[in-house]
Structures are given as C-alpha cells and as structure tokens.
Amino acid sequence: MTPPPARRRRSAASGSAPAHNFPRRGTVRRAQVITTYGVGSLIAVDHESFIVSGLDEADRSWSPDESKVVHERRLARLLDVDHFRLPPASEDTSKDGLRVRRFPLMHSCPECNELQPHRDFSPPRGRSVCGTCEVDLVPSRFVVACEAGHLDEFPYWQWLHRSTDRDAARVGKCGGRLGMRTTGRTSSLRSIIVSCTCGQVPDVSMEGSFRRNALKDLRLTCRGARPWLGLSATDPKGCGLPLRTLQRGSSAVWQPVLKSALSIPPWSNGRADPLAGHWEKLRRYEDSAHVAVYLDAVFDGEWPVSLDEVMSLLAAEREEDPDGEAAPTFDHRYRALRTKEYERLRSGNDESGHSRDEQFVCETPLGDQSVLRPLGVTGPMLVKKLREVRALKAFTRLVDAESTTDVTEMPLSQTSLRWLPAMEVKGEGVFLRLDETRLDTWEKATAVAARVERMRTAHQRVLEQRADDPSRVVPSPATPRMVLLHTLAHVLINEWSLEAGYPSASLRERLYAADDMAGVLVYTATSDSAGSLGGLVAQGEPEVLDRSVRSAIRRAEWCSSDPLCMEADAAGSAGANLAACHACVMLPETSCEHNNILLDRALLVGTPEQPGLGFFTPVLGG
Q1: For residue 474, what are the contacts with CB-CB under 8 A and spacing of at least 6?
Q2: What would the mean pLDDT of 41-55 be, rounded to a whole number?
Q3: How far apart are CA 173 and CA 165, in angstroms?
Q4: 36: part of which helix (H) or strand (E)?
Q5: Poorest-pLDDT segment among 124-133, 329-338, 366-375, 492-501
Q6: Regarding beta strands 244-247 and 48-52, do their DSSP bridges make them parallel or antiparallel, or are they unpaired?
Q7: Mind spelling out the 3-state secondary structure of 463-515?
Q8: Is the sign of the CA dihedral 184, 187, 188, 192 positive or negative?
Q9: Which ranges in 353-445 belong to alpha helices (H)?
Q10: What Å distances lie between residue 251 and 368, 409, 570, CA to CA?
Q11: Whole-angstrom distance, CA of residue 9 vs CA of residue 26
C-alpha cells in the first residue's frame, strides 16, 4: 500500500505574496506562529534571517481570507476584539503564506570579511550570497532593542568610531568600508573584531557591547525602529529609551503576550456572537421586558437567540465586572475569567443535555470519592470535552510582561484591528481540588511558610534585577498553596505520561491558586492523535486517581540527583526553585504555566530533617 504524501506545514515567504514572485523560504507549524514566530519575531531559515511582518492591511503577515475565524466571546471581550483567526496551515490550503522581511540587513562575508547591508553585496536575485566571493552571507549576530519593543540594527559604525551620530545619511562619512572577522583564539566576544578601511580608528572587538550601559555611554538611544512594519517604519511618538545589545537568537528579542480561556457555558459552542454590537445597550436593561422591547426594535422577525439565553449571557458578563466600577481593568477581568472557569469546573454540567455543538462536558466520576479523602484530594471532575483558545495579544522585548506592571506591549499592527491571531485546542482533562480545611492548616505551618518565603524572596530578587525600574515590579506569585498545586500538577503529568502513554509535552497544566481557589486542571495541550481519545479522562476515576496520586508522590520522594536536589538552597535558572530539577519534576516548557519556576517537591513529601513539610506526608507514613 502506497503511503500518503507527507503533509507540509505553513511556509514562510519572503516579502509579499507569491503573486509578486517571492519564493517560499521555509516552514513553521501553525502553533509556532502564536508562541514562537509571531509578528515582530526573528526567524532563522537556513543561513538567512527574517522578521515576521505585521497585521496591517497594507502588509499583512497572512491573508485573512485564508484564515479560519475562531470565536470565544469571553476572551474576545477581555481583549476588546470581535473574533480571532487561525494562522494559515499548509500549502494545500494556503496560497499566500506567512510574510516576512529580511532582518537584520547588516551581513558579513566570511571570505572577504566585509560588513555592510545585504543589498551592497550585489547578491543574485533570490539568493543570499556575496556577489564577489559567491559564498553564503552571514546575517549580523547582534541587534539592539529597547523596553518599548523597538528593534534595530546594531550600530557597528558608531561602535567602532565611538561616535554618537545616528543619522543614517551621515554614517560612514569617514569614507571607509566596515569589516568583521574572527580571530579564532577564543569563542568570546573578544575574538570578534570590527574594522574600517578608513585607517582613522584602530580595530575594536565586540567585547563589552552587551553591558547594560554600553550604548548609553556613546549617547545612543532608541529611534523607534519597527522593521516588522516596514524597513523605514519608525514610531511616530519617538522613543529615546536606552538601547540594549542582544544576540539575534536570544529569547529576550521577542516574548509573546499570550492570553487564553476555556470555552465554558454559556459561550461553549464556538459560535459567532449572535448579538455583536448590541451588548453595550443591552447591559443597560435589568429586566427581561426591556430586553425584549429592544430585541423587537432591532431585529425584524425572529430573534437570533431566545430571551432566556440573552438574559443568561447578560448575567454571565455582569459577573465578570466589578460592582460599582464603570470601566473594569484588564487584570480584574482576567482574574474573573479564571474564577468563572474554576466555578464551572467545580460544578460541571452533568444536568444539561449535551448538544452536538457543546464543547465543554465536565462530569462527576461515578466511583466512590471517599477513597481520595486520606490524600486530601477532593472534587475530581472528568472533563470529557474542552476547548481552549490561546490568543497572541502583543509582544514585548527585554522585559517579561508577566513580571512587571505598566509594561510597554508592542501591538501587532499600526492600526487598530478587530481580530487577533489565535489557536484553538480541543481535548480532554482531569480537574481536582485539595481539601480546604487540611490545606489551610498545612499552609499556616511555620516551616512551610519559611520555606516558601525563601523561594518568594529569590524570585522577587530576580524580577527586580531584570527590571530597569524596580517600582514597576509585580509581587512574586509564590505562596504555599500555589507552589504546592504547581508541583503536584508536574508530578501528575509525569505520572500520567508513564501510566497513560501520553507524551509529557502533550499535557498542560492550568492552575487555580488563590485565597478562594485550590484546584488544578491537567489537560491535553495538542489537538493531534493524543488529543481526546479518552485515556486522560480515565485517570480521573477515583480508584485510578488514588493510585496515580500515591504513585506520583512516592516517585517524588526520590530523585536521581539526590541528595543534592533535595538539599539545594536554590535551583533553576532563576534560583526560584528548591527541590526541583529536570530529573524529577521539571517539564517541557509548553506544559508549564510558569516556565518551570516556583517548584519544590519537599512541599509534597517533606525532607528527611522536616518530614512535616510535606502535604502528603501522612500518606507516605501510612
């Protein structure tokens, strides 16, 4: 039997559409267009480097005509858009593709060592080679960025000549040509030498260019360049912020601002908003009689939805707005969105007749839940169907949007659009909660609070070090409850990847940790063959869940890196973990909501010196 041809994923095209005869340059997966190679990010294709174009009408990253419309009313309301669109998927369905621009423009030739803009090498059309040496050109390894999200070429001429001149028309007035070579003595920046044929300045290495004040000392500030919107595009508001040198492939060059929501009733059928454009007026009415009068006035004939459904939708939206506040903040609405998810996961929708379009089915398991009582676990729910929409709201550079307040987020377009790029995940999951009474007693223990305070202090220190303005740093989310739930989610994902056959990268956590919430949802994070086959839901039956939790906790007692792992004063890249490493509880980054920080398995099982630290120590003792 002949196998089907391999399916090729989305291709990134240089410049405009193929109608302009620009070739395809490579492929990326649909999910990567949201999480890794979104608007404004740099993408390496073979030996070339490009930046993904913006979403404006004049030069859009991809054609909306090729993108499926995705509806998720609660998330759309939070982000103030009408709908979302999926990125193009494959060459079979996409004629245009993902449009990109060449960036950085500065290239060097490894043969003749010249350093100049790409076009000055006179490369043949469609190729990136030196017109003289006929060898592949190397894109600049270095770029500069500011905290406002702007991105620009590294100022090689100014760095070499120690000049403060940023006028492009005057740069190079010395009459020489720049060159770059590597001495090969070391792999450090000291071995990368920049020179000029003018003979007026000595050769200079790139050593010191990454210092926080390296370009500030030359009085070079950001000019507001936005190359993803056009090679000559600059911010009309100007900028003037300090510039930082970055490696072209650094994660600090582009960090997505992602927001997600589960589709829960009454918005869990994925349909378009039946009353788009009417909500602001409808919210003025408290009783159904006035709502009916309004619907009669604006709709000829039959209403798009019943009156009962309209009142239910209005009630759901009012619950997400604070009392007595005309303009609820984004943070309040996002917390309210999570709270509503938690409430719905707790209550489920057993009583409703599931329609064919229902995308949220959450049921109470049939088994005896009392077997979970000794574990301190309660309220397991089988999420047999769920749908998550993850939207790319904006992006940042240099700073983490989740770690600072009033962070400058760079929008995906110059003009205001009524849609955002997004992806949807359909799958299944298991939701469970911890017993509130036992949890309250445990988290008030002095030893527990002291251990978590060490983590919180270390994490807060890292957040302050990464921010230029310490006054904008948000408090660390580390609390005993949060760290416990986070670590429990990780050990369960590892357990289920062994017992149920799921790759750990196919599972994802969603934490509900607050004063009035203590739950965790583990669900399938992809919509491929590991998406919704029922294997994960089966783990939520009380008897199976009891065995899984006990097995996961016992595995957490021991790590192949012990005793170093358990006795570590700080672990992880940020030093915000304690007893946690890649040999025990860390997961693939796609599975974790907090980038593998704020983990400590000692809070699950205790330590040899302090066994009482562990929430599940009584289980192990039995």
Answers
A1: 402, 403, 404, 405, 463
A2: 91
A3: 11
A4: none
A5: 329-338
A6: unpaired
A7: HHHHCCCHHHECCCCCCHHHHHHHHHHHHHHHHHHHHCCCCHHHEEEEEEEEC
A8: positive
A9: 436-443
A10: 47, 16, 23
A11: 9
Provide the token pair at 444. 């008030």
- Burial string for 525-535 (b: 16+ CB within 10 Å, else e) reads bbbeebbbeee
Q: How many CB atoms lie within 10 A of CB 21?
A: 10
HSE (CB half, 13 Å, CA atoms) of 172? 11
- Specify whether the CB–CB gap between 337 and 261 falls below 8 A: yes
User: Which residues pair with residue 225 across a beta bridge?
Assistant: 234
Phi and psi at residue 191, to the nearest 5°: -90, -5
Structure tokens at 454: 């060490």
**What is the structure's pLDDT at 622?**
46
DSSP-derived secondary structure for 88-135: P-BTTT-SS-EEEEE---EEE-TTT-BEEEGGGG-PPTT--B-TTT-S
Contact residues for 158 (Cβ-Cβ < 8 A; gap 6+): 164, 165, 166, 171, 218, 220
pLDDT of residue 31: 84
> Tell me, what DSSP letter sits at residue 124?
P
Across the strands, what pairs with 144? 152, 245
Q: Six-digit token pair at 268?
A: 């869990």
Residue 370 is predicted with a pLDDT of: 93
With 90 as the cut, is the pLDDT of residue 429 above it?
yes
**Strand, helix or coil for residue 520:** strand
Quote the pLDDT of residue 313: 76
Q: Is 231 helix (H, G, I), strand (E, B) or coil?
A: coil
Please tell me the distance from the alpha carbon of residue 450 to that of residue 378, in angstroms, as a whole number. Answer: 27
Sign of CA dihedral 324, 418, 34, 269: positive
Tens digits of per-residue pLDDT, 82-106? Answer: 889 988 765 545 566 788 899 999 9
Report pLDDT for 193: 94
Q: Distance between CA 433 and CA 415 in Å, rounded?
A: 44
H/E element, 602: helix 602-605
Report the C-alpha gap between 387 and 426 in whole angstroms. 4
3-state secondary structure of 18: helix
Q: Select the more confidently predicted residue: 348 or 487.
A: 487
Tokens of 412: 């995906």
CA atoms within 13 A on the CB side of 446: 0
Burial class (CB in 10 A: 0-12, 13-18, 19+), 270: middle
- 277 Cβ contact partners less than 8 Å away, ≥ 6 residues apart: none
φ, ψ at 36 (rounded to 5°) = -125, -45
Which own/partner pairs from 348-354 qualify as long-range (CB within 8 Å, at least 24 positions apart)? 348/381, 349/265, 352/265
Of 292, 336, 341, 345, give the one whose Cα is nearest residue 317: 336
* 80-89, 491-500, 539-548: segment of lowest average pLDDT: 80-89
Residue among 156, 340, 376, 159 at smallest CA distance from 265: 340
Reduce the DSSP state of residue 206 to 3 states and report it. Answer: coil
CB 452 within 8 A of CB 483: yes
Q: Helix H segments across 98-222? A: 156-161
